[in-house]
Amino acid sequence: MTDASPTGQNPDFDTMARDIAEVPAVEVIVTVAVNLMSAAAVKAGLTEEGDAHKDLDEARKLIHALAGLLDASTTEISSFHAAPLRDGLKSLQLAFREASLVPDEPGQGPGEKYTGPVFG
User: Fold this and answer.
1) pLDDT tens profile 39-86
2) By CB neighbour count within 10 A (0-12 exposed, 13-18 middle, 19+ buried), where does 37 fall?
3) InterPro entries, per this entry (predicted)?
4) What angle do CA 79, 85, 87 make, to 5 degrees?
5) Is 73 within 8 Å of 27 (Cβ atoms)?
6) Using the 8-state DSSP alphabet, how is residue 119 labeled?
7) What's the rounded Cα separation, in Å, for the pair 99 and 85?
């Protein structure tokens, strides 16, 4: 992998740094959370391809990271942003439990260290 752009020139890191500096922290947090959520859904087999990309070990890690991020940022993002992310996390946790051949005990599933036990 190279650092060159498609035009063959090196990227302008000063411009990229300026661009990211203009993005509010809440947007960065929400974007990262959505990316974790999307990746976890794919790894949990919740996409149209289903089992083609299913890897519950990877899904567990992503769900746990998402729960940690949401727990750590609770006071930093408004409930307007946090509520749908928490709902998505709960849905992922329930889908993970359903997809597992041997479901975790309540409170032991991915991210439940941060959210507490998740029930349907």
Assistant:
1) 999 999 999 888 889 999 999 999 999 999 999 998 999 999 999 999
2) buried
3) DUF1844
4) 100
5) no
6) -
7) 21
